[in-house]
Predict the structure of Family 43 glycosylhydrolase.
Amino acid sequence: MIRTALVGALLSSALALPACAQPAPVSAPSNTTTATAPAPRELHVPGNPILADGDYYSTDPAPFVAEDALWILAGRDMAEPEVNDFIMPEWQLLTTKDPASGDWTHYPAVARPHAVFDWAEEGRAYAGQIVPGPDGRYYFYAPVLEKDSDAKDRFAIGVAVADSPTGPWRDAHPEGPIISQRVPVANDIQNIDPTVLIDEDGKVYLYWGTFGQVRAIELEPDMVHTRGREREITGLTGFFEAPWILKRKGTYYMLYAGNRAGPDSDCTPAVYHACIGYGSAPSPFGPWTYRGVVLKPVSSTTSHPGAVEFKGQWYLAYHTADAQGGGHFRRSVALDKLEWDDSVSPARIREVVPTRREGPAPEPTRNVAAAAMPGASNTPVPVQYWIAALNDGVTRANPLPPEMWGSWRPDNPPRQWISYAWDAPVTLNGARLWFWNDQPAGASVGVAPPKDWHLEYWDAADRAWAPVKAEGPYGTQPGHFQEVAFAPVTTRCLRAVLEASGKGAEHAGLAVQEFEALAPEATLPRPRAADAPAPQPCG
Ligand code: FUB
């Protein structure tokens, strides 16, 4: 369902579908049905992501403080690399007494939906939150799929209770979910991503939502039963999902995944990628005012915030695709410091600078595209695509739209081009393109491989684009690199001119995952700095 929706988005314009959709029921992988959880593991980690070797992916972090330690509740992604779906059978915990030490204890599989809630289906252990309650016990708000429900969307929020963060967890409301499309009142949203605040006056508030809808309701002091009416929250500009409520110095703050996209957006250039935005309010139900961006888009389309103060320092937990073998459905939790600017009122959250453990040393490469600035004939590029994907060095068998440049519109022209501009001339003698398609060669709808293409370089003497002297044919097969060698040119700009397939005046769109520009000799990569001034355009 999710994959269909995402590919559908390519065909049917810029739909905002980065994260969740009503899924078909899934079975958990067989190793998740065992009753005993694997033993806790002691880890020493040199930075983000916390779990980085691809053994356990960890998602949707929800930090809390208990027993003099920082804890992070996380889901677990178990999708195979080629699967674009949230395969999430269980929740896990990470805990440390000192985040700077790198010493963590990992508790795998502390809870599974159907094991905690009789009324829940296996799998889909989405973003939950554990909250230390006023009675010394722990309350776990968990979005799960309701088994026997005729709701259009069966996601529902249950609440479990335990005497320790690691469980055992038991259903605190065995009658069923506390929030669904049927309770406490009928709603038509996807009821996921709960977040809870215990206010200084002892009142308890639950917020949740996705797909642009945020809801709020008060809970009884028992942390379990709802009271009063369900309210719609407005004012959180670009809200997509993953609300996280906190209160500091009398002000309520809501962090959330936002996807207001476009070249001038402070949040994200591509609609499938979320930033973490935030708003503030003087009272739990608002009015809410948008305040800005806490975290720019990361390597996964979702990044799901959770923030907490621990021993006088605030932290932001989020997830990325940065672990070994990671991806949009194989995410891993990261933790960085979050700082406040108290010179303004209400205090501002400074943009978090994500840190990352040191990776392997870069290898020499002939590809010099990373040092160039990409451009395209269809600027501004439709917001489901991301032009930065052209030279990010990533190709996938199952890419999402922002992992490619694309041109699809309801009415496609017969030709497009994509280009690179360097600050200073480079010598090139080859290029490689990786085409993406969802329609066969020759199609006049959707996204198809090009009918033909060729490379041109900027001839500074003639002040004109000139074709390179290609030494072989221009291949059009999608799904792997099509390489063309050519007689060396020294130039500041290179472009690939793509002829769309089609019939008569009807043309398919075009999409390219990666465009490599090859120098005669391999050298160490010199990526362009994100804040470097734009090179002079050619032509
Ligand atoms: O992990 C599944 C979903 O992805 C969460 O519920 C969303 O917040 C997003 O992170």
Q: What stands out?
A: The radius of gyration is 25 Å. The first helix runs from residue 2 to 11.
